[in-house]
Design a protein that fits this description.
By secondary structure, the protein is mostly helical. The chain has one domain. It has eight helices and no strands. The longest helix is centred in the last third of the chain and has 66 residues.
């Protein structure tokens, strides 16, 4: 079941609440929904984490945490999922986001000449920020939606599978009891 798997890897809410540096957040961290492992909370956490992972901003973890607080989604999961973009995956994701935004906005591709200077960085950032932000928002929304949908479908499939297994187990138990009743002699043996 997804709940069992996620619970095994999630931090203990009490340990998080006892971290001294988070003392100022104690009123917020008392909300039990921030640590719930149900279909709604986990699927919203997946949306928030994956959406924020595609944003080209510093503070993705804080943004994911704020969305989790606002939506009362699972906080640890949403904060962990921003690591979809890490130092290895970030360059191709940002490039794909830029290309998507450029395509959506109908902008021409900019010739790229690298220089190791702050002036170059500011100039290039001004030229690409709008297509990059547009593409990142679109990709984040789409991928976040698919993550949300995948968790909802996976969770439902697992619940139905569990119900079917319990139903089959009850039928087997009933059949075994009926067979045992048939096998019993009708007269007491003297």
């Amino acid at each position: 079941m997804p709940r069992k798997f996620l619970r095994r890897w999630s931090p203990d809410p009490e340990k998080i609440r006892r971290i001294k540096g988070l003392g100022w957040l104690k009123p917020v961290l008392r909300d039990p929904y921030l640590f719930h492992m149900n279909r709604r909370s986990v699927s919203l956490a997946f949306f928030a984490g994956v959406f924020c992972a595609f944003l080209p901003i510093p503070g993705q973890t804080l943004t994911a945490a704020l969305l989790a607080l606002w939506w009362r989604a699972n906080l640890p999961i949403s904060m962990t999922l921003i690591w979809v973009t890490n130092p290895i995956t970030m360059p191709p994701i940002l490039y794909a986001n830029y290309e998507l935004g450029r395509w959506v906005l109908g902008k021409e591709r900019i010739a790229f000449h690298f220089e190791m200077s702050f002036n170059w960085l500011i100039t290039e950032a001004q030229a690409i920020w709008w297509p990059l932000l547009t593409g990142s928002l679109i990709a984040g929304l789409v991928m976040g939606f698919f993550a949300w949908l995948a968790i909802r479908v996976l969770w439902q499939w697992q619940v139905v599978r569990s119900w079917e297994a319990r139903k089959l187990n009850r039928q087997r138990t009933k059949a075994m009891k009926e067979q045992a009743m048939k096998d019993m002699p009708s007269h007491p043996v003297e």
